[in-house]
Design brief:
5 helices, 0% strand, mainly alpha, 2 domains
């Protein structure tokens, strides 16, 4: 009886292995899909943030931050052209952050400037 129970357990485990393998493969593919897809949204966000910062006068009031944002965006575009999507996504996110810094600095400088 004990041998029959062990046999049933072994059969159940071998039947489950393909299901577990398929689930693990699906998880792995979904995780890597984020890194293999072009960072279209991140690039768009960075470009829009830079445009808004420029409209707020960042070219005059926060040139250092704006220049950093544009540098990150340029690097992101280079990485995108080379299909290095992870690096492109990272640089695009940094470009957006720097552009938002430029916007904040520009707005703060505008408040301090007498009219």
């Amino acid at each position: 009886m004990l041998l029959a129970d062990n046999y049933k357990n072994i059969v159940q485990l071998t039947e489950m292995k393909p299901i577990i393998a398929a689930l693990m493969l699906a998880i792995l593919l979904s995780v890597t899909a984020c890194e293999t897809a072009p960072p279209v949204q991140e690039m768009s966000d960075a470009r829009q943030a830079i445009a808004v910062a420029k409209e707020a006068g960042a070219e005059e009031r926060a040139a250092v931050h704006l220049q950093a944002a544009e540098s990150y965006l340029e690097r992101a575009e280079q990485q995108l052209n080379e299909h290095n999507y992870y690096e492109a996504r990272r640089d695009a996110k940094q470009a957006k952050i720097k552009a938002l810094d430029a916007l904040k600095a520009s707005e703060a400088a505008a408040k301090d400037t007498p009219q």
